[in-house]
Specification:
It contains 34 helices and no strands. The chain is an all-alpha fold. The two termini are about 55 Å apart. It comes from Pogonophryne albipinna.
Length: about 600
């Protein structure tokens, strides 16, 4: 490492060795490979002292070694050691003494060096004050601040010395800096945080109290960062209740909004910080304030399942004049959000208040929301409390809760709405019934229930004149197609053509190599004739089917080409597929 014996003697505070080596002609300003001279190591010598010193039972020995280290540093300075020399990273001996908190060594360096003041206020890469504050060496920091003419220097990221002390939570360092006039309003360059922000964010309440009580001019409690966040918002984000209480007592605005319109209460509701929410509500924070998407804290508490917070927010909302206006920009209520996520406890809280139950909102009702995500328990709770009047409610696209249950393939939810009198053959704006939705999605269990128990109508046509069989065949949902074929007894329905004159067989042929490769109608007729004269299909192994009851598997020898009428005229196969899927209504609006 390029170190001389003098480096080691200085680092370990060996005064007699240092004197002997210097007398013998050792170079006092010789740098090692990192650019450090013996003076650098001597300035930090208490940190580099022998291991056995830490196990000394004699306190007097510790003091003697500290004095010996001090004399070592003094001897080097008396013999021409240059305190202005910096290592490869730009640190001088003053930086080293500050970093290791060596108060006596600092005092000596500052006393004997004419360049010490420049070293202190240098911020390349950081000042000695930053190093002392970052490590919590308040005594060393006091020595530095009493010498420096300016204590508000900032590092390359714009962080002041007070910022670092507040970030690490060193109240003694904060006290020293405030006594020398350090500003609490200097912000960094990345987030535009002040020392107040960083103390609140990290929950250092002692540091926060000192800075705010110091009495600097300006509104310390409501200063905003790059995103419009106040210290109160950051304290709530971290769940630092002590900081939240103190900031509110000192005048922090509970309803201040950031650039997205979110308040401290929005943050508490999302993260489930009960104590912070209670503190905000005690200081009259609005439970129905809205962010840029029109969402209130009640929406977020409902979505996250924070039942106790939701109950407190509802109580506060009922005491306001706007209690009947809890719709976000998509016209969803907190009830929609709780149902969509399946939080039954939150539903219990909301359903206790009749004004929330009957509030008009998006026609895609809470029942739709619960069923589309398979939350049958939440759906049952809604039907029990809110009444069965919503069982056949239609959304803006004409879809009923039965459509939503069919989309989710939730057997329990499907059976629930069927028990409550759902219209089996209700069709949406595109003409799709629940059976057609299930067939299109390939939900064979749902198809089986709708066919065998509910006796769904197989003759219904969507806007493109597709039957349920068309939709199943178009997506190669074989089990759904077989279930439907098992209930069809009329060749007319099997050979029904859609708006492009395609039969279910044409759609299924896309997934049958022989027929799909036919270049024209004549070739297709020939291939169909060959297939129809071949050996009947072998019986299916019920164990190979992952869904649907075994009782509906095709009987041995079932010829799928029977009654198919391949010679019927038809238009060329279109290149595009069928698009009759049940699209998610919420489009991610209810995601966090």
């Amino acid at each position: 490492m390029g170190r001389t014996p003098l480096h080691y003697a200085a680092a370990n505070g060996r005064y007699q060795c240092t004197v002997t080596l210097v007398s013998a002609g050792a170079e006092v300003n010789e740098p090692d490979q990192t650019g450090c001279t013996p003076l650098h190591y001597s300035a930090a010598s208490q940190a580099f002292s022998r291991v056995d010193r830490h196990f000394s039972a004699n306190h007097q020995n510790d003091e003697d070694e500290a004095k010996e280290s001090y004399f070592c540093l003094e001897h080097l300075l008396d013999n021409g050691a240059d305190p202005s020399m910096v290592n490869s990273k730009g640190y001088s001996a003053v930086h080293y003494a500050a970093y290791h908190g060596n108060k006596q060594n600092l005092e000596l360096l500052l006393e004997m060096s004419f360049n010490a003041l420049g070293d202190i206020e240098s911020s390349i890469p950081v000042s000695p004050l930053h190093l002392a504050a970052d490590k919590g060496h308040w005594q060393a920091l006091r020595v530095l601040t009493e010498t420096a003419a300016y204590v508000d220097m900032q590092d390359a990221a714009g962080r002041s010395v007070l910022y670092l002390a507040a970030q690490k939570g060193f109240p003694r360092c904060v006290e020293v800096l405030l006594a020398q006039g350090a500003s609490c309003l200097l912000n960094d360059t990345q987030l535009m945080w002040t020392p107040i922000h960083v103390a609140a964010s990290n929950g250092h309440s002692d540091c926060l109290r000192m800075m705010i009580d110091y009495g600097e001019e300006g509104d310390l409690t409501n200063v905003a960062d790059k995103f419009g966040q106040t210290p109160l918002m950051l304290a709530v984000l971290g769940g630092h209740t002590d900081c939240v209480h103190f900031l509110l007592e000192k005048g922090a605005l509970p309803d201040a909004k950031d650039k997205r319109g979110s308040t401290a209460l929005h943050r508490g509701a999302v993260l489930g910080h009960d104590d912070c929410v209670c503190a905000l509500l005690q200081h009259k924070a609005s439970s129905v304030c809205r962010d840029v998407q029109g969402r209130t804290p009640l929406h977020y508490a409902s979505s996250r399942g924070h039942t106790e917070i939701l109950a407190a927010l509802v109580q506060a909302a009922m005491a306001t004049d706007t209690q009947n206006d809890l719709l976000d920009d998509k016209q969803y209520t907190p009830l929609h959000w709780a149902a969509y996520k399946g939080h039954e406890d939150c539903l219990e809280v909301l359903l206790e208040f009749k004004t929330l139950i009957h509030e008009e909102g998006n026609s895609f009702t809470p029942l739709h929301c619960a069923l589309m995500n398979g939350h049958s328990g939440a759906a049952e709770r809604l039907l029990e409390t809110a009444g069965v009047h919503m069982i056949n409610t239609r959304d803006a696209k004409g879809r009923t809760p039965l459509h939503a249950a069919a989309f989710a393939e939730d057997v329990a939810g499907l059976q629930l709405v069927l028990r409550h009198g759902s219209e089996i053959n209700a069709v949406d704006a595109s003409g799709c019934s629940a059976l057609m939705v299930a067939a299109d999605k390939g939900h064979s269990g749902t198809v089986a229930i709708l066919l065998h128990r509910a006796k769904a109508d197989l003759t219904l046509l969507d806007e493109n004149k597709n039957t349920a069989l068309h939709l199943a065949c178009s997506k190669a949902h074989e089990m759904c197609a077989l279930l439907i074929l098992g209930e069809i007894h009329s060749p007319t329905l099997i050979n029904a053509t859609n708006s492009t004159l395609q039969m279910p067989l044409h759609l299924a042929a896309r997934h049958t190599p022989a027929l799909a490769c036919a270049p024209n109608k004549d070739v297709a007729d020939c291939l169909a004739l060959i297939l129809s004269t071949m050996k009947p299909f072998p019986p299916r192994d019920p164990s190979s089917c992952s869904c649907g009851p075994p009782s509906v598997t095709p009987s041995p020898g079932l010829n799928l080409l029977k009654h198919c009428g391949i010679t019927a005229s038809c238009a060329p196969l279109p290149s595009n597929g069928l698009h009759n899927g049940f699209v998610k209504e919420l489009d991610g609006c209810l995601s966090e």
